[in-house]
Amino acid sequence: MLREARGDRSMVEVAAAAGVSAETLRKIETGRAPTPAFFTVAALARSLGLSMDELAVHCTPLTV
User: How far from 48 is each of 28, 59, 61, CA to CA, in Å?
Assistant: First the structure.
């Protein structure tokens, strides 16, 4: 979802706006950081114009 929200903005640009390294963003986007810190995700969401609610809905598995 973060990668999709980034659109054509560069990884470096988004990472800098969120105050994280481009490598951290790369690891999150590729799944190599399976449990990123809450505040890292919150900063990325803010820099991408996403709400934490949107992320939670997208990342929470549906239960039947």
Answer: 14, 16, 22
Cα 12 to Cα 55: distance, rounded to the nearest angstrom: 21
Tell whether the torsion through CA atoms of 63, 33, 16 and 43 is positive or negative.
positive
- pTM of the predicted structure, to 2 decimals: 0.84
CA–CA separation, 47 and 17 (whole Å): 6
First CA to last CA distance, the chain? 23
Q: Answer yes or no: are the C-beta atoms of 14 and 59 closer than 8 Å.
A: no
Calpha distance 5→16 (Å, rounded): 16
Predicted confidence (pLDDT) per residue in 3-45, tens digit? 999 999 999 999 999 999 999 999 999 999 988 999 999 999 9
